[in-house]
Amino acid sequence: MTHLKAGDKAPDFTSTDQNGKTVSLKDFKGKKVVLYFYPKDNTPGCTAEACNLRDNHEILQSKGYQVVGVSADNQKSHQSFISKFDLPFILLSDTDKSILKAYGVWGPKKFMGKTFDGIHRTTFLISEDGSIEKVIADVKTKDHTDQILNG
After folding, report:
1. Which residues are catalytic?
2. From CA 72, how far away is CA 107, in angstroms rounded?
3. Residue 126's closest CA among 16, 46, 21, 27?
4. How far apart are alpha carbons 13 and 92 in whole angstroms?
């Protein structure tokens, strides 16, 4: 779904995390970022993905990655999700969908025969210089870290 590909400059963004702190892509300059977009806090697939990233967070950090999750959920929802599953990374609230649209992950989806607009689960690996190294569009929620490191 996304129009972005490896080699493209990652679109800059500014949003707030689960604690209301302002976060921008430029804050991660000089670091590698796993920017993952997911549909909704506390749903089965999103929980499996977040827990896989949680369980492998130290490995990802040892490879130089900062993990940042993005959904359209609000801060309160993110705080609950983080607390419930002990997530060690930040979650950004994109309630106005500006980041989702900039990365091309918001659009028509089909579920049980109905078409609606929603978030396409997608992960972007962003290099230290702000360019996209890899786009993972076919996310395997239970094996996502393996896709990031070996896919």
Report:
1. 46
2. 13
3. 27
4. 11
Give the C-alpha separation, 16 to 94, whole Å.
8
pLDDT 10s digits, 18-58: 999 999 999 999 999 999 999 999 999 999 999 999 999 99
The superfamily CATH assigns to domain 23-150 is Glutaredoxin (3.40.30.10)
Query: Of 116, 88, 83, 122, which Cα lies nearest the Cα of 102?
Result: 122
Q: Mind listing the pLDDT tens digit for each residue in 64-76?
A: 999 999 999 999 9
Helix (H, G, I), strand (E, B) or coil at 81: helix
Sheet holding 65-71, edge to edge: 22-24, 14-17, 90-93, 65-71, 32-37, 122-126, 132-136
